[in-house]
Write a structure and sequence with these properties.
Blueprint: E1 2-5, H1 8-19, E2 27-31, H2 38-48, E3 64-68, E4 74-80, H3 87-90, E5 105-108, H4 112-117, E6 122-128, E7 134-140
Helix pairs in contact: 1-2
């Protein structure tokens, strides 16, 4: 699936469409430069999964955000590993991969350690064009 978006709203809407493709066991690697629109995409994804979206933000300093439905059920986990210098050691805080069961997980800035812990089932790449539009490519990963 591919899309071109020209605004934050369109990027969020694309996230909502991708939400319909996710299962509770999916791990989505989100690839894109700083400012590419990854958080806008995740906001749309969370909304599409029924989460309260006013709390959606980049978890750069918290590393992990969990977004809940109004009923309190976790519907999406959002990891941002941008600031980790020793990713392997710091990922020990998350525990075994089954700690992520029960809701889809989005991983921004995935490195080698997370790839071993949580291999992707999906990958989404956002590239910013010179005109400011976003080129988004979404695909299932081969296992």
């Amino acid at each position: 699936m591919k899309a071109t978006t020209r605004s934050e709203e369109e990027t969020e809407q694309f996230g909502g469409r991708v939400a319909r493709e996710l299962s509770d066991s999916d791990v989505l690697y989100l690839i894109g430069n700083l400012g590419a629109g990854k958080t806008c995409f995740v906001r749309g994804l969370a909304k599409g999964l029924g989460a309260r979206t006013r709390e959606v933000a980049s978890p750069t300093f918290a590393l992990l955000h969990e977004y809940e439905s109004p009923e309190g059920r976790i519907v999406l986990r959002h990891l941002d590993l941008y600031r980790l210098s020793d990713e392997a050691r710091q990922l020990e805080i998350f525990g075994p991969a089954d700690a992520f069961a029960g809701a889809p997980t989005v991983v921004e800035w995935p490195g080698q350690a997370i790839r071993a812990l949580l291999p992707p089932t999906l990958e989404l790449t956002i590239e910013v064009s010179p005109d400011g539009s976003r080129q988004i490519a979404f695909q299932r990963c081969a296992r």
